Please model this.
Amino acid sequence: MTIKGMNVEIVFSLNRKIWLSLIVAMNSIVSNASNPDTIRFNVLVPPGEEQFFEKKIREALPSLAAQWRVKSYLPPAFMQEYLDKRFKEKTEDRRNSRYIQYSRFFFRDAFEDLERVIYLDTDLIVLGDIAELYAYTKALDEHCYFGSIPHFYPCIFYFSNFMKMREEIPKFKQTFNAGVWFTNLSFWNEKTYERLNYYLSLDAKSNYKLYTLGDEPVFNLMFKDYLQADKNWNRCGYGTHPAVTNLFLASGEKFLSEAKLIHWSGPFKPWSSPKIRFADLWRTYLPTPLAADYKSYA
Model:
């Protein structure tokens, strides 16, 4: 049942290894929201990690104005089988990490009471009022029920063999980073999952080596005609090598005055790499109970 007065639904999916990034992301969202009491965080975690996350959130954000809940989930058997064959993870922890990542395709089943939602990765901070991004969900309908933020990344780089995707590539308009998106789950239907199964089967026929960046190519294949939001709602790529970010990505006061979300997509994260651009800004959203012991998390 939806909480009375609730009108901004945000979903995360992660495992316990990156719990600190969740705390910072949540704190940044609430700190910059005009009406934080209208926000609910829906946190999806692997089975057995619910109490861990509930404890961390309560201790780190005891006076959080927003509502939140934690729920465990595993994706359907066909997705688990695909992931097991693709990644061949050797430990249960690593398998569950993959499962919860790909649970992003199944929020409709995990949270049956949700319709319009924003999904966010946790390697980011939100500097704008999240209600502005959520407002885009009002324009979604049965014909276009997925939206994201366009970025410059040629679609051919999503595939190890782009000749096998020669019929799909011309259909792309502009790719998006799959760490920030919004959708109306009520419009996800059998055809949606037929498309998902189709693109998973293409990968299987290529010995699970067709896609290069996790599940982002599949999201882009499924939702080529997506609703585009302002680029400032996902200024991504700041987790790439410092030499790359310093050369190609924006910085400075003007950038910070315009950016509504900074995303450290890539292998370098602000909690473990202090030299990464804007890591100092990320640390400003560490709650006081954690800030003093921050070095122990790095």
In short: The first strand starts at residue 8 and ends at 13. The beta strands are 8-13, 39-45, 67-72, 116-120, 124-126, 146-150, 176-184, 227-228, 261-263. The two ends are 39 Å apart (CA to CA). Residues 8-230 form a domain with the Spore Coat Polysaccharide Biosynthesis Protein SpsA; Chain A fold (CATH 3.90.550.10).
